[in-house]
Design brief:
It is a single chain. The chain has about 325 residues and is of the alpha/beta class. It has 2 domains: about 210 residues, 3-Layer(aba) Sandwich (Malonyl-Coenzyme A Acyl Carrier Protein, domain 2); about 70 residues, Alpha-Beta Plaits. The chain is built from 11 helices and 12 strands. β9 and β10 form a beta hairpin. α1 packs antiparallel against α3, α1 crosses α5 and α3 runs parallel beside α4. The radius of gyration is 19 Å and the shape is globular. The termini are far apart.
């Protein structure tokens, strides 16, 4: 590094991207090792060995924790390498990582909170009875809103995430998702089931959100070093009280990722984006909104250059990773 790198927004994916060995590339960096060591101390075991076993990542609690720690470790490593982001945002549990990376929450407290949150979700509606499915294709938002309205306000079907112009995620009971498929297919789009995903960001997890609420009162909030965009309102903010209110609503509110992609450029002033992870996930969604925006993948230490033709540049549609 010859100097600080500016203009980038950093984005952190959620638990569905957890992969074995994701931490190892970051370990040569002291800043990342400190994050891993602290998480291991809080959890009482070596997370590198624990999460290095592919079988363990089938446990949703492990997947949530791994996404959190990889995101924070990557962000702190990139900062140590000279990256000075204009904003940070995370998708799903990635928002917890973004809040720690921005310095507004402590890692030890958030590890405990995410552990508790994931355990509660694991005891929620089982994947055999409820889950998530993505509406995929042009005009996905309009079609998703229509099928939710058709089922009425008494159903458990809800929009869980506005991921991009061509991808919107539904959550609900399995029979409701089956009914939704009919409307989606009739509109000429596809509905892709997301196996193993809890039916979050909707009414089916309202009771879990209520049980989790007292845990938020125990968090110590600080002014973040860099604006954070919440999934709830997609607004860059350095106001701890505002971010705290958004986090309390996070589990039952739809993820506003398409709006986040717009705000990263229009409000935060990002001229390029770095995604921390093992595979392109959020980057392709951002490119649905900003086709010409340089979006790069950071899989280990070192700041990738803001070159849209770089070998790590993200292009194409978001990976569906599901069943039709």
């Amino acid at each position: 590094m010859t100097g600080p790198r500016t203009g980038a927004a950093v984005v952190l994916p959620g638990e569905w991207t957890a992969a074995p060995g994701a931490l190892e590339p970051w370990l040569p960096d002291p800043a990342a090792r400190d994050v891993v060591a602290e998480a291991s101390d809080v959890l009482g075991r070596d997370v590198v060995a624990w999460w290095g076993d592919p079988l363990n990542l089938h446990d949703p609690v492990v997947a949530h924790l791994a996404a959190l720690v990889v995101g924070v470790a990557g962000c702190r490593s990139l900062a140590a390498a000279g990256l000075q982001p204009v904003a940070v945002a995370g998708h799903g549990v990635g928002e917890y990582a973004a809040l720690v990376a921005a310095g507004t929450l402590r890692l030890d407290q958030v590890v405990d909170l995410v552990d508790c949150r994931a355990e509660m979700l694991a005891h929620g509606p089982r994947p055999s009875t409820a889950g998530m499915a993505a509406v995929v294709g042009p005009g996905a938002g309009e079609v998703a809103r229509a099928v939710v309205a058709d089922l009425g306000t008494t159903s458990g079907l809800a929009i869980a995430a506005y991921d991009g112009p061509a991808q919107v995620v539904l959550s609900g009971w399995c029979p409701e998702l089956a009914q939704a498929r009919e409307g989606v297919v009739a509109a000429g789009l596809d509905l892709v089931r997301l196996p193993g995903r809890a039916a979050g960001h909707g009414p089916l997890v309202q009771s879990i959100a209520e049980r989790l609420a007292p845990s938020f009162d125990e968090l110590d909030w600080s002014v973040p070093y860099v604006p954070v965009l919440s999934n709830v309102d997609a607004r860059p903010s350095r106001d701890p009280e505002h971010l705290a209110r958004c986090l309390q609503r996070h589990l039952t509110s739809p993820v506003q990722w398409e709006a986040t992609a717009h705000a990263l450029v229009a409000d935060a002033g990002a001229t390029w984006v770095v995604e921390v992870g093992t595979v392109p996930t959020l980057g392709p969604l951002i490119r649905q909104v900003h086709p010409d925006l340089p979006v790069l993948l950071a899989t280990g230490p070192g700041v990738p250059g803001p070159d849209p033709h770089d070998e790590h540049a993200l292009t194409g549609a978001a990976p569906s990773r599901g069943e039709r």
